[in-house]
């Protein structure tokens, strides 16, 4: 495997007495799109700011493309494109002026300036907006300008803090496809609390809760652990379910309501339903669920109680 | 790199009405005052002829004009410096600068230089009025140059202090108010030196007025120049330190 683009180890960050980031390690490889998930205030933004050099970590080590960020900040930052949660725009400038300025800030040589700017605009769908004032653009387009400034200098690493917040569904889709496109040639980290977004674009997921990393898996791994919901007329013991071949674990959510987990569970669903029928448990419903990112997320970040209420809510809604 | 930041700063200033309003308003006020001084000079002229080694145009028009304009410059500099760093913090654009491969020193000096460029334009604009007399009267270029240098040094100090105040606060208004407070303090602090006490020298020494009066008479003391340069440098360094500290600890 090639050397990682970002190699951050044991990051800590304190704000006065608050331990916002606690022993967090992050690794990013070329072609990866890493999704940082977490509830509000989990430490996602602090973590991203530390990776970009905007915040200094209280402890820990960050290597960007093999260069130590703290020892050689300027060389390391050259490889980073960063979009903060609020796009850093100068409203009084036009899109072209702004992009020229941001390219110069990243030491883009003059002869490449025009090409780089046009490429960034084209990739973000801004080609016809070069002469518009940034303050006159809609929020979606401002967000695109924010992404354009992050990719203009062809950085190896692109860090996007909640890139689709406040966008309409069509714009969201466009930005997501742009991110997927970017992921082919760069390493991308994006933070969000929209779970479908992670499922749509990311190749890796890391869930952060109270500053700690509580989950770190690739999407492929995640997809291979299947689950399903099971509704029975009769309330039975969990052990009876777990003995059925194909089911690794089962959880009782409410009397007669279960969630079952297992590797390649979806292939053995017919066997399970047959088993329920022969046992005369009164099978009402068995439905496979695609992957359990949402459930994992809620479980890891809010505990069981929240999970229960979320499930009853979904059931009531359906 | 410093230059790119400075030019962006200057450009943004001229894209907002603020810069134009300041330039226009300042010119009207100073032109009015300038005409007043010329008027006074005319009324005094019959008397002046009788005196040997009488004060000339430079002493009676240029020096008072420059003296007056310094006060106006003191009043407008916080309006410009208040935005320098607080606005970047408020808009989140500071994150763009901090994540770019440039040092904190480059960011702060660039911003300072941008404001200094704007005020250089103002000083040139002010100087054009007395220069228009050069054809008709005998202008003492030495005194005139010393007066311009004095204005420039004063402005450099005002801006450095304003920059530091701007680095402390997210709210431009707070930055402006505290800059006004401190600038006026440094302006009038030598009032205390009218007494004969030993401390009076000290108050004189840290006062801006004390250090700028000699330059209006055409005398440039290196100690006065050093005072303004050190004053500016001190507050620029404090601003850099302040931004660095904010990155390190909240």
List the keywords.
heterodimer; A: 318 residues; alpha/beta; Rossmann fold; Alpha-Beta Plaits; six-stranded mixed sheet; four-stranded antiparallel sheet; 11 helices; 14 strands; 38% helix; elongated; B: 250 residues; mainly alpha; 82% helix
Task: Report on this structure.
- The complex is a heterodimer of chains A (318) and B (250).
- Chain A is α/β, with parallel strands linked by helices.
- Chain A contains 11 helices and 14 strands.
- Chain A has 2 domains: 216 residues, Rossmann fold, CATH 3.40.50.300; 96 residues, 2-Layer Sandwich (Alpha-Beta Plaits), CATH 3.30.70.980.
- In chain A, strand 12 and strand 13 form a beta hairpin.
- Chain A starts with 5 loop residues before the first strand and ends with a helix.
- Chain B has one domain.
- Helices cover 82% and strands 0% of the residues of chain B.
- Chain B is globular, with a radius of gyration of 20 Å.
- At the A-B interface, helix 2 and helix 3 of A face helix 1 and helix 5 of B.
Q: Can I get a quick summary?
A:
The complex is a heterodimer of chains A (318) and B (250). With 318 residues, chain A is α/β, with parallel strands linked by helices.
Rg of Cα set of chain A: 23 Å
Instruction: Note the quaternary state here.
Output: heterodimer
The secondary-structure class of chain B comes to mainly alpha
Query: Rg of chain B to the nearest angstrom?
Result: 20 Å
Q: The CATH topology of the largest domain in chain A is what?
A: Rossmann fold
Average pLDDT of chain B: 89
Largest interface: A-B, 35 and 25 residues
Number of helices of chain B: 11
Compute the number of structural domains of chain A: 2
Beta-strand proportion of chain B: under 5%
Helix content of chain B: over 70%
Q: Could you tell me how far the N terminus lies from the C terminus of chain A, measured between alpha carbons in angstroms? A: 46 Å
Shape of chain B: globular
Taken in chain order, the helices and strands of chain B follow as: HHHHHHHHHHH
Query: Could you report the average pLDDT of chain A, rounded to the nearest whole number?
Result: 84
Beta-strand content of chain A: 25-35%
Name of the level-1 CATH class of the largest domain in chain A: Alpha Beta
Largest sheet of chain B: none
Order of helices and strands of chain A: EEEHEEHEHHHEHEHEEHEHEEHEH
In total, how many beta strands of chain A? 14
Major sheet summary line of chain A: 6 strands, mixed
């Amino acid at each position: 495997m090639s050397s990682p683009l970002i190699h951050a180890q044991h990051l800590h960050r304190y704000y006065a007495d608050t331990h916002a980031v606690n022993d967090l390690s992050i690794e990013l490889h070329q072609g990866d799109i890493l999704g940082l998930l977490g509830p509000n205030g989990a430490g996602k933004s602090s973590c991203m700011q530390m990776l970009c050099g905007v915040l200094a970590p209280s402890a820990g080590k960050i290597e960007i493309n093999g260069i130590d960020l703290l020892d050689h900040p300027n060389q390391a930052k050259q490889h980073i494109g960063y979009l903060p949660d609020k796009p850093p725009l100068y409203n009084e400038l036009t899109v072209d002026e702004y992009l020229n300025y941001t390219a110069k800030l990243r030491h883009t040589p003059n002869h490449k300036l025009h090409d780089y700017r046009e490429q960034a605009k084209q990739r973000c769908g801004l080609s016809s907006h070069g002469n518009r004032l940034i303050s006159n653009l809609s929020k979606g387009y401002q967000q695109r300008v924010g992404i354009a400034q992050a990719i203009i200098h062809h950085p190896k690493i692109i860090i996007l803090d909640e890139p689709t917040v406040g966008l309409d569904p069509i714009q969201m889709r466009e930005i997501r496809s742009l991110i997927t496109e970017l992921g082919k040639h760069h390493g991308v980290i994006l933070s969000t609390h929209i779970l479908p977004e992670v499922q749509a674009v990311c190749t890796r997921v890391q869930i952060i809760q109270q500053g700690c990393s509580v989950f770190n898996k690739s999407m492929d791994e995640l997809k291979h652990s299947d689950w399903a919901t099971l509704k029975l007329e009769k309330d039975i013991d969990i052990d009876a379910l777990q003995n059925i071949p194909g089911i690794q674990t089962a959880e009782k959510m409410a009397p007669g309501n279960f969630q079952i987990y297992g590797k390649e569970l979806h292939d053995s669903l017919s066997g399970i339903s047959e088993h329920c029928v022969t046992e005369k448990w009164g099978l009402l419903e068995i439905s496979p669920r695609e992957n359990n990112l949402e459930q994992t997320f809620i479980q890891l970040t809010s505990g069981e109680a929240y999970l229960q209420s979320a499930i009853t809510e979904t059931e009531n809604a359906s | 790199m410093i230059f790119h930041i400075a030019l962006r700063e200057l450009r943004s200033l001229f894209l907002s009405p603020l810069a134009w309003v300041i330039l226009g308003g300042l010119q009207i006020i100073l032109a009015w005052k300038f005409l007043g001084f010329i008027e006074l000079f005319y009324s005094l002229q019959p008397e002046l002829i009788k005196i040997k080694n009488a004060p000339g145009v430079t002493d009676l028009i240029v020096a008072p004009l420059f003296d007056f304009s310094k006060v106006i410059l003191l009043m407008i500099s916080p309006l410009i410096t208040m935005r320098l760093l607080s606005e970047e913090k408020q808009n989140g654009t500071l994150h763009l600068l901090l994540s770019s491969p440039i040092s904190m020193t480059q960011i702060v000096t660039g911003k300072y230089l941008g404001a200094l460029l704007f005020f250089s334009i103002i000083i040139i604009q002010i100087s054009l009025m007395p220069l228009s007399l050069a054809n008709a009267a005998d202008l003492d270029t030495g005194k005139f140059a010393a007066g311009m240098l004095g204005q420039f040094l004063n402005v450099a100090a005002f801006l450095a202090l304003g920059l530091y105040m701007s680095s402390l606060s997210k709210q431009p208004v707070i930055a402006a108010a505290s800059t006004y407070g401190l600038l006026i303090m440094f302006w009038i602090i030598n009032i205390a030196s009218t007494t004969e006490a030993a401390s009076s020298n000290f108050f004189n020494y840290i006062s801006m007025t004390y250090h700028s009066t000699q330059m209006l008479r055409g005398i440039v003391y290196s100690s006065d120049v050093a005072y303004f340069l050190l004053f500016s440098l001190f507050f620029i360094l404090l601003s850099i330190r302040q931004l660095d500290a904010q990155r390190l600890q909240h």
